[in-house]
Amino acid sequence: MKNLKSIDRLTEAFSKLPGVGHKSAEKMAYSILEMNDNNVYELSDALKDVKESVHHCKECGAYCENDICEVCSNPDRDKTRIIVVSYPRDIFPFEKLGTYNGVYHVLGGVLSAVNGVGVEDLRINELIEKVNRDSVKELIIATNPTTEGETTALYIAKILENMPVNVTRIAYGLPMGGHLEYTDSLTLLKSLEGRKKI
Amino acid sequence: MKNLKSIDRLTEAFSKLPGVGHKSAEKMAYSILEMNDNNVYELSDALKDVKESVHHCKECGAYCENDICEVCSNPDRDKTRIIVVSYPRDIFPFEKLGTYNGVYHVLGGVLSAVNGVGVEDLRINELIEKVNRDSVKELIIATNPTTEGETTALYIAKILENMPVNVTRIAYGLPMGGHLEYTDSLTLLKSLEGRKKI
Questions:
Q1: Domain containing B130: what range?
Q2: Residue B43 and residue A13: Cβ atoms within 8 Å?
Q3: Which among A2, A24, A91, A197 is least buried, having the fewest CB atoms inside 10 angstroms?
Q4: Of A78, A67, A25, A123, which is closest to residue B46 (Cα–Cα)?
Q5: For B69-90, what is the HEC assignment?
Q6: Domain of A105: which CATH number?
Q7: Distance in Å, alpha carbon of B52 to nearest chain A alpha carbon
Q8: CA-CA distances (angstroms) from residue B37 to A51, A76, A152, A153?
Q9: In the predicted model, what is the mean pLDDT of chain B?
Q10: What is the pTM of this model?
């Protein structure tokens, strides 16, 4: 007895989800058979709905369902301070803090020779325009602490060095609750370099 | 910044999948945003397709895309030997063996006072009819080794005791590759009871 065609098709489709291997995808596909019809149709429709109704904010590039996202359209947010991130999802951890009152700018990736991502592929010109237009005082670069994230951060700092904007980088160091014993030496080195008077 | 409505809806829908909690569901929902459009539409359609094209085999109750499943419609399968299982998915492990040449019968559950599942809720009458019609020689009861699975197995054995069919139960014991040290005492007891001359 071979797998049913429609199950194979669904397994294949589930396995495209990040972190879902063939085995889990097959398990999910079979579980669909035993789920309530309404729940399955709801999932099917919700998937299409997300693709159809979620766009990028025209201002900052974040995910939103309107032209302009909730942050950019909020008159209480400080437009002169911008956190620069690589991807839309990187905004959420900052918003969860609930203490940041500035806005964001999504680059749409990181500079990467390996993956062929150049300056023209990122939303860097839009960032420069925004810095000029809104007399931005501080740009906080929050790309990931990887080689490519670093390169991107340095590139942005470089092209803005003659403009009246303060370009900063989020700090590196030991994660809170972490243990010295288990910390890799690069993180420890960064943590030493970034030491502050207490 | 709150979650987008369509993301909330998709998260809710994903969390109905068995074994998917709210956190994983949210992660999946966001990953959909970054997936290729075609893959998302394919998943959405494949979900609907499974619900629309997979039915229960009219003969044995297994999943199939036609009226009669591959096993029941195969003239080479021995119709006089039936493995009785609770759920359609329980057929797969037997088919994977590749050595069983009989057919199956899906009960559609187990007798359960707690869940209000009585004899009339299971496909037991169909089983009795089949035993008569096809002069079945052996029924191998393969309900799970749980209290409810046991009750169901005993009930079927009881109502068929005066018919010319050999009703057997799959064996209990140590799983192959298992360790005595880690075996629960009930399994060990069953393993002792089921001992065979070597």
A1: 75-170
A2: yes
A3: A197
A4: A25
A5: CCCCCCCCCEEEEEEEECCHHH
A6: 3.40.1360.10
A7: 9
A8: 7, 35, 28, 30
A9: 90
A10: 0.71
Pick the more confident residue, B42 or B176. Answer: B42
Answer yes or no: is B160 within a domain: yes
Question: Which residues have C-beta within 8 Å of that of residue A149, sequence separation ≥ 6?
Answer: A86, A110, A143
Compute φ and ψ for A68, nearest 5 degrees.
-120, 135
Spatial distance between the Cα atoms of A5 and A11, rounded to a whole number of angstroms = 10
Contacts of B13 in chain A (CB under 8 A): 39, 42-43, 46-47
Is there a contact between A89 and A142 (Cβ–Cβ < 8 Å)?
A: no
**ipTM attached to this prediction:** 0.71
In a domain, A86, yes or no: yes
- How many pairs of residues across A and B have Cβ atoms under 8 Å apart? 150
**Rounded Cα gap, residues A106 and A104, in angstroms:** 7
Neighbours of B147 (CB within 10 A): 12
Dist. CA B156–CA B3, nearest whole Å: 52
Q: Is residue B57 part of a domain?
A: no
In the block, tokens 């020689």 appear at B137
State residue A47's pLDDT score: 95
What CA–CA distances, in Å, run from A117 to A114, A141, A152, B33? 8, 18, 11, 20
Cβ atoms within 10 Å of A110's Cβ, excluding its own: 22
* Mutation site for B-interface testing, chosen from A7, A23, A43 by largest number of B Cβ within 10 Å: A43
Give the DSSP H or E segment for B131. helix B124-133
Rounded to whole angstroms, the Cα distance separating B149 from A71 reads 56
Does residue B35 lie in a domain region?
no
| Closest to A51 measured CA to CA, from B22, B9, B23 | B9
By C-alpha distance, which of A14, A86, A194 is closest to B44? A14
Domain tally for chain A?
1
Q: Quick: pLDDT tens for B76-117.
A: 999 999 999 999 988 988 888 888 999 999 999 999 989 999
How is residue B124 written in tokens? 């037991």
Select from B26, B44, B72 the residue whose CB has the most chain A CBs within 10 Å, as the one to mutate to test that interface. B44
Cα(A198)–Cα(A176) distance, integer angstroms: 17
